[in-house]
User: What shape does this take?
Amino acid sequence: VQLVESGGGLVQPGGSLRLSCAASGFTFRQYPMKWYRQAPGKERELVATIDSLGRSTNYVDSVKGRFTISRDNAKNTLYLQMNILKPEDTAVYYCNVLRLAVDYYGQGTQVTVSS
Assistant: This one.
């Protein structure tokens, strides 16, 4: 299993970013996927989940209405569209898959929201 996140960067408050996660080594279309984030000095937090077909999504309350998780099963890619970013969204963002009782994460992509 390999997960490779990209798309992070420095953005001003109120700005937008789109994260991507390229997946390989497993049958992507068969698995629900998740985005987590971890801010400095804090525990890793579940941000959003999506089912295998992309029909059902869930979000942590702090990002509802601002973030959108989606997937393209033809491209084996998971996305996180982040709008109206706030300084408290600053964190390393990770995509995740639970496969055969093992949690897999990518290396993460840094998102920094600052003026």
Notes: The chain is about 0% helix and 55% strand. The chain has a mean pLDDT of 97. The two ends are 37 Å apart (CA to CA).
